[in-house]
Amino acid sequence: MKTIEDLGDLAGQRVLVRSDLNVPIKDEVIGDDGRIRASLPTLVKLAKAGAKVIVTAHLGRPKGEPNPKYTLAPVAKRLGELLQPEGITVRFASDVTGDAAQTAVQDLDEGEVLLLENVRYDPREESKDEAERGALADELAALADVFVSDGFGVVHRKQASVYDVARRLPHAAGGLVLAEVDVLKKLTEDPARPYVVVLGGAKVSDKLAVIDNLIAKADKLLIGGGMVFTFLKAQGHEVGKSLLEEDQLDIVRGYLKEAGDKIVLPTDIVVAPEFKADSPATVVAADAIPADQLGLDIGPESAKVFAAEVAAAKTVFWNGPMGVFEMAAFAGGTKAVAQALTEVDGLSVVGGGDSAAAVRQLGFADDAFGHISTGGGASLEYLEGKELPGLAVLEED
């Protein structure tokens, strides 16, 4: 993949950057600005080179039409606050490629940054029709001279602002995308051992392909979160009212048989009668979950075992919380795993999404880990061995 340096002198050039600024916002307040901060190095580099930087990004799922709930205006404000110490001005256009965007691009000075409104306001962005996506890509390309792909969280999507626009302009990968790919190569090509993968989250079906691809590569697969109950049920245990995917039981039984002691399951579970923060929590053996209870976290003994496996590893990839970390009574497992990752003498990778949100909510600093990915879905698809369209197009001449 070409880098920004391969694009030559960018002074005075209009550079369209696809960033991933999809951050949680409630009542115009940003809950976690991690993805915005991750986008900064590439934007600063381009602005300092004298480029006119035009950023396109999405927020949430507005379903192809303007919706004030999903405006990028609060993101533009935060971006401006973060870039102010660099002396970089941030402007905001109230549409995607329309009159406001075109006028704002014309008025943009060298070294300034312009954020366009949510690209998913335009239904063509996510269209399955190549011609429709291409028409939006033509409009985006008309705003710029070159394209930089720096939104790792969307490189697994074949969308107008990710894939099609790269085929219309001289293009390069931004620093964030290059860093993410470098880490993923370390996880897949020749990882330092012991190599431990920690998987959690709600559904085992979301992680099947990852498990399938990593059983042979990892030394240990630690399973927690809601997905663990399908594993426990596959072993013949009662799981009460816990989350369960019965249609995945045969597949999970196959994994358990194939992987043997590579797969580590919790031996105790924190349960409660209801999915509520104040629901009374108790700890039970993993093979003795009461019928009227549901599991909401791995238990304290399991947390110790998981933490020991992680801390002793040389390479760790973690995707998915161990429990309902948003509720204090059910955050212990996730916190124990996060703490262990900070103690790894090697490469520790937090795989984006809920895992990234969890470590920040639980008070861990980003630099306590080797790498916090900005793209949970993209990371998983890479680890599944899939081709990511947004990366593949960057390799085209």
TrEMBL record:
Record EC number: 2.7.2.3
Residues annotated as binding substrate: D20, L21, N22, R35, H58, L59, G60, R61, R120, R157
Keyword Cell membrane among UniProt keywords: no
Highest taxon in the source lineage: Bacteria
Residues the entry annotates as binding ATP: K207, G295, E326, G352, G353, D354, S355
Subcellular location: Cytoplasm
Pathway info: Carbohydrate degradation; glycolysis; pyruvate from D-glyceraldehyde 3-phosphate: step 2/5
Any one Gene Ontology cellular component term annotated for this protein: cytosol
One MF annotation (Gene Ontology) recorded for this entry: phosphoglycerate kinase activity
UniProt keyword Ion transport, yes or no: no
PROSITE patterns in alphabetical order: PGLYCERATE_KINASE
Catalytic activity: (2R)-3-phosphoglycerate + ATP = (2R)-3-phospho-glyceroyl phosphate + ADP
InterPro entries (alphabetical): Phosphoglycerate_kinase, Phosphoglycerate_kinase_CS, Phosphoglycerate_kinase_N, Phosphoglycerate_kinase_sf
Keyword set, alphabetical order: ATP-binding, Cytoplasm, Glycolysis, Kinase, Nucleotide-binding, Transferase
Binding site for (2R)-3-phosphoglycerate: R35, R120, R157
Gene3D superfamilies cross-referenced by the UniProt entry: Phosphoglycerate kinase, N-terminal domain (3.40.50.1260)
Predominant localisation class: cytoplasm
GO biological process, one term: gluconeogenesis
Record family assignment: Belongs to the phosphoglycerate kinase family.
PANTHER family: PHOSPHOGLYCERATE KINASE, PHOSPHOGLYCERATE KINASE 1, CHLOROPLASTIC-RELATED
Quaternary structure note: Monomer.
HAMAP family: Phosphoglyc_kinase (MF_00145)
Name of the protein this chain belongs to: Phosphoglycerate kinase
